């Protein structure tokens, strides 16, 4: 659906721009093809301020899907009871950017781009656990379906990257990101709302299992809370640094 939205939006802009003289225009609408191929759909608007400087704003959104780069994530989130095969993630972000061009033409040539990014990552984290049920003078272990902690992690970060942008035709712009990165802070809340009449021993075991997670440098705090409807929830709060690499990418756009 989001890919269709981006495509339709570009067709609309192409129709508008076709009837205009685009050479030397101050505006560019573009999308990152390499990110779209990874289902991280995006659109960017860039406007020139003067011969060497421009400002841009972009929005990106990835629908909920299985965890990408699962092997890498498992190195940072250590807990054998987390079911990474059914770990789900989605995200969206707004990026505000300034560009300083070193080329001779407006919005063209090599550039340096500092930026600020505000993101939200939505996750579903299945946790396997087993708890004991007393049965006379013995206890019987019970393994229910995984407890799925759902919620979001918000991040704020700043960074910079370098790249090259060129106008290939009167309308077409090619933007090649080379390398960059960002760093900032994050905080989030994940919650598993247990069904009514869930025994306290089950909730205690879920909390104990989540407490075993080693996610340094992130700090995790887990508690059991009473809900207004009489049920209970296991709530995990996280906070810590946030970093990312802005790798090579190919962006195409229309200038007007």
Describe, in plain words, how this protein is organized in 3D.
The protein is an alpha+beta fold and 256 residues long. The chain has one domain (2-255): Porin. It contains 4 helices and 12 strands. The chain has helices at residues 2-18, 33-37, 70-76, 200-211, and strands at 27-32, 41-48, 53-66, 88-101, 109-127, 131-135, 138-142, 147-167, 172-193, 219-226, 232-246, 249-255. The strands form 2 sheets. It has an 8-stranded antiparallel barrel with strand order 1-2-3-4-5-8-9-12. A two-stranded antiparallel ribbon has the order 6-7. Strand 4 (88-101) and strand 5 form a beta hairpin. The longest helix has 17 residues, at 2-18. The protein starts with a helix and ends with a strand. Mean pLDDT is 90; it is low at 4-22.
Describe the protein's topology.
Blueprint: H1 2-18, E1 27-32, H2 33-37, E2 41-48, E3 53-66, H3 70-76, E4 88-101, E5 109-127, E6 131-135, E7 138-142, E8 147-167, E9 172-193, H4 200-211, E10 219-226, E11 232-246, E12 249-255
Antiparallel strand pairs: 1-2, 1-12, 2-3, 3-4, 4-5, 5-8, 6-7, 8-9, 9-11, 9-12, 10-11
């Amino acid at each position: 659906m989001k890919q269709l939205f981006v495509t339709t939006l570009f067709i609309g802009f192409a129709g508008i721009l076709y009837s205009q003289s685009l050479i030397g225009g101050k505006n560019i609408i573009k999308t990152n093809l390499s990110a779209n191929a990874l289902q991280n759909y995006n659109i960017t608007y860039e406007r020139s301020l003067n011969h060497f400087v421009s400002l841009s704003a972009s929005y990106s959104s990835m629908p909920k899907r299985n965890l990408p780069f699962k092997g890498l994530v498992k190195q940072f989130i250590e807990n054998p009871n987390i079911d990474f095969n059914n770990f789900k993630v989605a995200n969206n972000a707004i990026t505000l950017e300034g560009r300083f061009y070193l080329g001779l033409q407006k919005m063209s040539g090599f550039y340096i781009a500092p930026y600020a990014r505000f993101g939200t990552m939505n996750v579903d984290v299945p946790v396997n656990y087993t708890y004991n049920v007393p049965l006379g003078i013995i206890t019987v272990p019970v393994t229910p379906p995984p407890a799925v902690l759902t919620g979001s992690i918000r991040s704020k970060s700043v960074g910079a990257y370098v790249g090259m942008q060129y106008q290939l035709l009167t309308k077409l712009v090619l933007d090649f990101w080379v390398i960059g990165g960002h760093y900032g802070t994050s905080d989030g809340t994940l919650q598993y709302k247990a069904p009514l009449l869930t025994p306290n021993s089950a909730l205690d075991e879920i909390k104990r299992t989540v407490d075993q997670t080693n996610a340094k440098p992130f700090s995790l705090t887990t508690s059991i809370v009473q809900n207004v409807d009489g049920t209970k929830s296991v709530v995990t709060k996280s906070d810590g640094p946030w970093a990312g690499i802005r790798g090579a990418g190919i962006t195409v756009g229309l200038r007007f």
